[in-house]
Amino acid sequence: MPRRSICLSVVVAALVLGGASRASANGAYSHVHITQLALAQLPPGELADLFADPEMVAAVEAGSMFPDSGYAASDPYGEIVHWEPFLHAYLEDLHARFAGDYSSREAKLRIAFMLGFAGHAFVDQVYDTTLLERAAEMGDREIPDLSYDQVADYFLTIDQGIRFTVDDPYAPYADLPAIIANGPDAHAVTEAVIRDGMSRMSSLTHVQSNPRLVQSWYLTAWEYGPFLGTHYYDARAVGSVPWMGGMLVDYWRVLAARAHETDVPSRDLLYRSVPADGATNWNVDLSDSHAWGRISLFFGYAVDRDALASAISLRGSDGVAVPTTLESAYGSVDCSLVHVVPSATLAYDTTYTLELAAGATTLFGEATDAPIAFSFRTRCAAERLSECPPLPDPLVVGPRPEHDAGVPRLDAGTPALDAGPHAATGGGGCSVSHGGVALGGVAHGTPASSVGFALGALVAFGGVRRRRARR
Ligand SMILES: [Zn+2]
Fold it and tell me: What is the pLDDT of residues 214-224, one digit of tens each?
């Protein structure tokens, strides 16, 4: 019931929005679209066959909204389902329920849903510690009293022209409370609360997809986040929406193997790295960027970061070990993405090898039985650049798009959110009195009806959200 949810949200928005703080991680709309980009890149095989069915596409899209639905419902399950213990409990339920036979429609739906929520959780860790952190380094600022998540979604809605909604989202609603309760957090949540959270997320996609409703927030996003706006959809930028779409393809391969219990930790534990094996021109220190300068390890199973430290070694071509420290999103010890920080400046034009020793273990006890390693070469010193591979151009701000191009102007109509997935005009919906609104100190003369819907979007999402360390 999009209209009812949004109307309620508009009322609540006025009461709670003032307390909103900057959240991190992608917005709901971005999460769904990253999933869509991954679907478009699937190689032929089991997952491509699975997602030939539109019902399964809808299920993975719904799954990609699920973790944040808990924030929308103001229930702790949102944070809980972002982490590996929930994924582990979900996989155990899957194994017990279907005994490896995933040929039924119900089993396929549950696998699609899992790929959605697990991918979301991974994407949060990546985006927060790469592109979003890089944007802050480049001068992007927090937006006073607003969640950056939702306004960054509008780079997709308006700059990329991406339009979709997620209606009647699938989830294994009846069974999720037991899976959550059986996890290590033993949290009690009802099916009704989860349904409410998912309904709010569905409502949010109706707002986020409508350029007429979100234009003011979009302008605010560009005002405060010009670097993010420039590179949000730039595949060269680690942590951008298309970059993470490609990453998900690799992660889903591991998740599918885990569902089938055909996973091999020595193959699947480290499914991606930055720099990639064979990369050149890697930086010798973090002076250009902390966010993009660390060596990043993408794990197909969550790990205990500190327990893993002794298994990681970084050596130059002379075989001498370089000491390192490890970092992770939110400072969490339990994590799926680990950043390796060399404690010393690396040598120019030198091959380094990072190795994960045999016996590296995951959070739930899977262990590798062979070392995993990859190598990369550092860039050349300034005086030798002419003899070396050319350095890539640095990513800078701009050009900024022409904001008015292609964006329908708001007029006197009152949008009807529940008149169809893409309907933006006509009667119905909520209406509040007209007037201007001040955003970040800039007065935008937008009819308050649209602002009401945008406020509703923020509250439908929960308005205030902040990821935190697992432990
Ligand atoms: Zn999230």
Answer: 888 899 999 99
